[in-house]
């Protein structure tokens, strides 16, 4: 799978996060200097298929509600932010041209305390698609949201799932071309909006 390097990442942290080793990442990417990673750099993570996420999130799948348990084998990204587990995934890594793409963003309170999140509007999440660095689709475009602030509290072990369908139309309502696309997804809470997750898709 492909992974976009984020601020604060090291090969050791990435290896632990995806249940692999530094040596395997170095070999897969032919890295010359294991101490140099650039934010935004795309690297290959040599992970095997996972039947579920327990190998990745340290056996915490028991706190995820039943409708969240259809979790990914390979095409996913995740981050833990102040006690919140955030997961972005799709059900496939490649799609036929014109096929609907199901995007999933999950947030789970894996801490022992309540977590409060502040939102500036009724929008709770965002998905965008890029090709060759250019944004070609934004989920929220042409959608309207209540312009009111709201504070939402997640209790320990509480999970919320956000789902969206991308019909492979760009922002001009035109069918996209085949190729490789980068999908970003994030929760729009003030505390989380800088924590963007990345996955990659192939349109065939």
Automatic annotation (TrEMBL):
SMART domains for the chain: LysM
Pfam family, one: BsuPI
Domain spans labelled LysM: 1-45
Gene3D superfamilies assigned: Intracellular proteinase inhibitor BsuPI, LysM domain
InterPro entries in the cross-refs: Intracell_prot_inh_BsuPI, IPI, LysM, LysM_dom_sf
Name of this chain's protein: LysM domain-containing protein
Native organism: Selenihalanaerobacter shriftii
């Amino acid at each position: 799978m492909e992974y976009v390097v984020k601020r604060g990442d090291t090969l050791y942290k990435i290896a632990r996060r995806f249940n692999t080793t530094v040596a395997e990442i170095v070999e897969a990417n032919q890295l010359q200097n294991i101490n140099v990673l650039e934010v935004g750099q795309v690297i290959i993570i040599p992970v095997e298929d996972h039947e579920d996420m327990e190998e990745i999130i340290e056996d915490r799948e028991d706190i995820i509600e039943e409708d969240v348990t259809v979790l990914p084998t390979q095409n996913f990204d995740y981050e833990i932010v102040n006690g919140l587990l955030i997961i972005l995934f799709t059900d496939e890594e490649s799609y036929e041209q014109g096929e609907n793409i199901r995007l999933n963003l999950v947030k789970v309170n894996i801490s022992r305390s309540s977590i409060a999140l502040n939102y500036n509007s009724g929008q709770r999440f965002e998905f965008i698609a890029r090709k060759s660095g250019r944004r070609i689709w934004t989920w929220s475009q042409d959608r309207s949201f209540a312009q009111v602030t709201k504070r939402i509290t997640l209790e320990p072990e509480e999970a919320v799932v956000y789902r969206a369908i991308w019909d492979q139309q760009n922002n001009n309502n035109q069918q996209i071309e085949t190729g490789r696309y980068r999908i970003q997804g994030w929760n729009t809470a003030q505390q989380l909006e800088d924590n963007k997750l990345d996955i990659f898709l192939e349109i065939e």
